[in-house]
Amino acid sequence: MSRAVVGVPNVAPAPCDGYLYAGGKQMDLLPNSAPLATKLRNTLVQYHSIADSEWRLAKKTKDATVWRKPSDEFSGYLYKAEGVVEDVTNRIVDHIRPGPYRLDWDSLMTTMDIMETFEENCCVMRYTTAGQLWNIIAPREFVDFSYTTSYEDGLLTCGISLDYGEVRPNFVRGFNHPCGWFCVPLKDYPSHSLLTGYIQTELRGMLPQSAVDTAMSSTLANFYSDLKKALKT
Questions:
Q1: Who contacts 9 (Cβ-Cβ below 8 Å, separation ≥6)?
Q2: What does residue 122 show for φ and ψ, rounded to 5 degrees?
């Protein structure tokens, strides 16, 4: 079901195959969402087919395993995280994608605003993250296009940052290159799901690469443990 555009009274929701307007103003015209969503999905499916031999282990915990490889998008790494989550696919993805659940459990995310909603599976959001590593990495702000769609017997929720809008004071604007989460039920245990994520975040700012690598691996591992705790409540 479509929902009204957030912050724009008496305006019908734009279709997901239309152009994205920021605040209803043509001067803030964003990319057409349909080709952006298609390209984003295809990119994530391509990541999902990368051979195991190309990945290098970055971190392993009881909840998840994290690997990395050089990104083709920027000078940092593309991270892959994977773990089994004891819940059904739809409920897991509802907790990950933009919506009412994410802020309640994601310890890294401090604010989230849905700026535009086009269809239930397609939106633009702005969110902020807390400082990390004793604030060596200062709080960040992101503006992302988010798209959720079906994938095999499960779901894919994915996103990419958009360079637009003014940066809030006291924040550094980061950029998420194509990223997303595949969630599919386990064949023999349909009440359990395999959750696989691909993340390549350009934090920007003057940061030592070692600090970025440590933060990314730990953040992804913590993501699984925080999510599992939230799903049990």
A1: none
A2: -145, 120
